[in-house]
Amino acid sequence: KANAARIIFPKRAGLGPSRHAADHPRHLRSPPVPTTTELRVRYSETDKMGVVYYANYLVWCEVSRTESIRQHGESYAEWEEQGVALAVSDARIRYHRSARYDDLVRIDTYLTAVQSRSVTYEYRMTLAASGELLVTAATSLIAIAPNGRPIRLPEAIRARLMAMLEAPPKR
Fold first, then answer.
1. 12 burial class (0-12, 13-18, 19+ CB within 10 angstroms)?
2. What is the pTM of this model?
3. Nearest Cα to 127, choosing from 93, 102, 94, 109?
4. Longest dimension (CA), the chain
């Protein structure tokens, strides 16, 4: 069986799928359906050489992850109001090419795993005009309570995340 993560992150890229069986939901039989976010590189996101400063790609992961949740008809802000936040516990990124000021960047976001306390997203950033690969990335997030302590995902939120694994976005 081909794992969807292998499609996004070939082994040679160093970001391939985890070797831990628990990281890969058994019920996921087809590649995850991505959500897409586009953003234009702002001048403030570039360095003196005119290329996007490397840390901004991780900011864009957060932007696209929140938008992905929204595109599935959910609200991360409402989850926080219910006392659940998702804190990044692991981030991996591979740079393939630099984006420059005024480039339109397409971010395909994939929810690839939902566990009792955590979720994993993977990202593929390309130039919208040409499809040239810029970045591949992955983030793992752990559910935390308002006091910062790890918690289990509430069953209602976990069920909605599980449904997002294979459902196309609503918009």
1. exposed
2. 0.82
3. 102
4. 48
The token pair at 77 is: 């802000």
- How far is 33 from 20, CA to CA, in rounded Å? 22
Cβ contact 117:153 at 8 Å: yes
Q: Which of 47, 90, 102, 108 is catalytic?
A: 47
> Tens digits of per-residue pLDDT, 21-33?
444 444 444 667 8
What are the strands of the beta sheet with 35-40, ordered from one edge?
Answer: 35-40, 104-114, 118-127, 133-144, 85-95
State yes or no: is 47 an active-site residue: yes
- Classify the C-alpha dihedral 163-165-167-170 as positive or negative: positive
C-alpha span between 99 and 127 (Å, rounded):
8
User: Could you tell me if 35 and 68 are in contact, meaning their C-beta atoms sit under 8 angstroms apart?
Assistant: yes
Name the residue with tokens 């001048």: 43
Reply yes or no on whether the pLDDT at 9 is more than 70.
no
Q: Report how far residue 161's alpha carbon sits from residue 167's, in angstroms, rounded to the nearest whole number.
A: 10
